[in-house]
Amino acid sequence: MTSMRTFVACALLLVVSSAAHADLLLFGDAARGEKLHAQNCKGCHDTGVYTRPDRRIRSGEGLQAQVAMCNRNLRTHLSKEQLDDLVKYLNDAFYKFK
Question: Which of 12, 22, 55, 76 has its CA 20 to 30 A from that of 41?
Answer without folding.
Answer: 22
